[in-house]
Amino acid sequence: MLFAQSLCVPVLVMASSATTKAILSEKKFEPVSQNERTKGVKYLVDGTPNLVSLPLLYALPSPKCPKPATDASIPVIDLSGLNGSDDQKRSLTIKEIGSACEEWGFFQVKNHGVKISLMEEMVKAVEEFFNLPLEEKNKYASNDVMDPVRYGTGLNTPAKHTPACCKEILGGGAISESLGLSKDYIERSLGQGCQIVANNYYPPCPEPDRTLGISPHSDHGGLTILMQNDVDGLQIKHGEDWVAVRYVPSTFVVNLGDYLEILSNGKYKSVEHRGVVNKEKTRISIAVGHGPELTATVAPAPPLISDNRAQFKPIMYKDYMKIQQSSVVRGKTPLEAILINGDDISLLSKISCSR
Ligand SMILES: O=C(O)CCC(=O)C(=O)O
């Protein structure tokens, strides 16, 4: 089973910014203290049946509030084209994946081989977890990035192994081949691999336009595979626009992380994305990130460096993850920090290198 062996990292995410520039509506809401905040937004929403305004702690300054997203469709790719003996179909599918990686950094996959009933059970299990009493969930509370199971606000944790669906796309060689690399290049570079499962729960929000479920960020790993309940909320950066990714039943959303942007020497993009919330429905998403071993060196693949022009400095994956996971560093700043011609290399000096 694809996700059964994954270590589960329950994550309760709401706006990660605690900015206090906001106007409250007529019903004055009690200010939420940092201590209350650690109980999470579900606790807040469950305990306040008539919540009509957003607590200040969660409100973003207006330039950061989400504007309506552009409606465009990211490619939906039929993975059945990678199986079987039809070489033409296979190379067409690889081409489609390559174009999606280059143009969008995101795509959706259908006919991925994972049972729909299993996907539904996963979402249900996450919902059941979040419906547990706070004391139960708090047994998993931790701020240590390396803990195998963690519950809290905006967390990620590594575990070994690269499951089947990811192997189908990575190990099946489609992305390696689309880059002109040998079929097993990326799989070999991942070694034993490192997997992170983030289970996100976004309760309904009385003022969705004044906050975000999850702030803009790119992922640090190779590929992230995301499933969700039938509630929209994911948005991705495309050029200057935020584009809404519409829920397509039975599909996974796949996106490239920084590791693949670096390995491809910038040809493929690890695209910023964010989660918006809505007034009516709870949204659940399960993001499974796959990266290399923690001690792997992340660097452009030598066959993709022409004229000695590597775009990124090599860095140990573990160290990269540490910067990326820092709560103050958002968006694509961590990747920019290792750009060879980038302006800001100051972040690198802040990394405590564990070699
Ligand atoms: O909920 C989503 O759609 C996005 C989740 C995400 O980006 C993450 O967990 O890192």
UniProtKB/TrEMBL annotation:
One of its GO terms (molecular function) is metal ion binding. Residues 1-22 form the signal peptide. Keywords: Dioxygenase, Iron, Metal-binding, Oxidoreductase, Signal. Transmembrane segments: none annotated. Pfam families: 2OG-FeII_Oxy, DIOX_N. It comes from the Eukaryota. Residues 190-292 form the Fe2OG dioxygenase domain. It comes from Dillenia turbinata. Belongs to the iron/ascorbate-dependent oxidoreductase family. This is Non-hem dioxygenase N-terminal domain. The keyword Metal-binding applies. The keyword Thylakoid does not apply. InterPro entries: DIOX_N, IPNS-like_FE2OG_OXY, IPNS-like_sf, Oxoglu/Fe-dep_dioxygenase_dom, Plant_2OG-oxidoreductases. PROSITE patterns: FE2OG_OXY.
